[in-house]
């Protein structure tokens, strides 16, 4: 049984720019994966309906301050480069867990022939949590190159933690972008043929989706309207497209609107699309990528499509009555948009052991072909004769070589409220936020939507220095612009929610079972889209302090302090030029952040602000690699 997710490798656009001489570029070698083992894994993934992979990720540790080479370009910039090699790869890409480019810095990734250049990436590409992935470059060698103004090198942070190793589906590498034009089978019917004349509104809601979930692939899906008619950019596709992906992967999904030919004939060149990058998972039929129940996935896009997309929020029907005729609109093989037609009543069917969760459909021949579905069609909507979505595609047996075999679509009516009891397992709380109770809903033009403003995400903790297990920390959302959706991520995972709260509560309560520094991220969404905020090493559990040093302890004095605080670093190795000191009150509010001033060979000093009140504060000293925290009493 086919699962209709098509993999694709992201290859980006060709830019000209600063290219280093390559004869002496240092090489960073990455051990290639065992492809026989990968093939065995792929066979098992296919049985489970997981995303069809074309590449695997290989963990690495590549820090630009430790590996590679620097040189001056003679124009006030320092340039870093390194050649990354992994034998036998058809393509490589880079994923960063630290990615901060200063203003005017540029990063490129390219092949040795310099005919495939990804970038320039700039400070615009910086994310708050430092996570970022590059496009894919064809071949088993890539060169990473960064040009940065000399006076800004100290602000540059780049650390590669994964290499994407691509081992099949070579064709997408033959172009300089993510095109799949002409890749679908010949019986497919372009959406702008006569078969699509009556479906122009519905067509505008359907988009091609570039999915990342431990690999890359194509799906299809549609914007969907909600009973509030407020243009929240909800997008429906299939659970097996990647419902188990981490939030950082969802942020890299790309939604291509208007990726279609202008007429019934295939265009001679790549059509222009209007794209939205990034989404957040709202609900799905299960909690992992394996297919379950009705196989639905509902996300909120980063923002609404721009006016040029001429997008449409498709209507839907949650009626259990079977549709007698209609169409499916999709992107088979990641190709331009196609349309498939049915003229017989849909039949209720079982999918992966769940009775009556899907509609079975048989396609018919039409004037310009015999539409079917292929890999890449996964998640696409099937419409009834009224132009309303009644399901999303899971898979099936139709091919151009077997056009009369059936396909199966997860029922919209089943996805509405039958997959589970929590809001994260059904569509009802999101598409009927006002509890209107409508059985059907018509579509909505994006052009009717008033301008919206994304959430400005902010939060605080009731105590950022809790004791292990014994103290409850309340995380309080103070996001502006009327969010209605929240999702919290905390690392490391040694914590639990309490007080009846969970990761989707606006103000959850948390206890921590191990000492350490915890990073907290909050995603919030409103009618305009989603945004997020990360606070790294925000909560410090267990009183981690200077006294934990077993050798060469750091000494802070005087304590209590009045106007000047001295810190003796002992024989510890600190990068004094990049060392900062911060003071926070006991609610976590910063009262001081500044560079340290050298007071001696191993001693630094800081002036305590005159306007702070007497009391206890936490002092944090860090050089980016080493961090120490201690309690200080101020008494003036």
Gist of the model:
This protein is mainly beta and 636 residues long. The protein folds into four domains: 2-174, no CATH class; 194-445, Thrombin, subunit H (Beta Barrel), CATH 2.40.10; 459-541, Sandwich (Immunoglobulin-like), CATH 2.60.40; 546-634, Immunoglobulin-like (Sandwich), CATH 2.60.40. The chain is built from five helices and 45 strands.
Instruction: State the helical fraction.
Output: under 10%
Report the sheet-strand fraction.
35-45%
CATH superfamily of the largest domain: Trypsin-like serine proteases
Judging by the overall fold, what is the CATH architecture of the largest domain? Beta Barrel
List the domain count as a whole number. Answer: 4
Mean pLDDT: 86
Structural class: mainly beta
Number of helices: 5
Taking pLDDT < 50 over at least 5 consecutive residues as the criterion, the unreliable ranges are 6-18, 170-179, 543-551
Rg from alpha-carbon coordinates: 27 Å
Question: What's the shape?
Answer: globular
Write down how many β-strands occur, each being a DSSP E stretch of 2 or more residues.
45
CATH fold-level assignment of the largest domain: Thrombin, subunit H
Largest sheet entry: 8 strands, antiparallel
Report the CATH C-level class of the largest domain.
Mainly Beta
End-to-end Cα distance, whole Å, is 75 Å
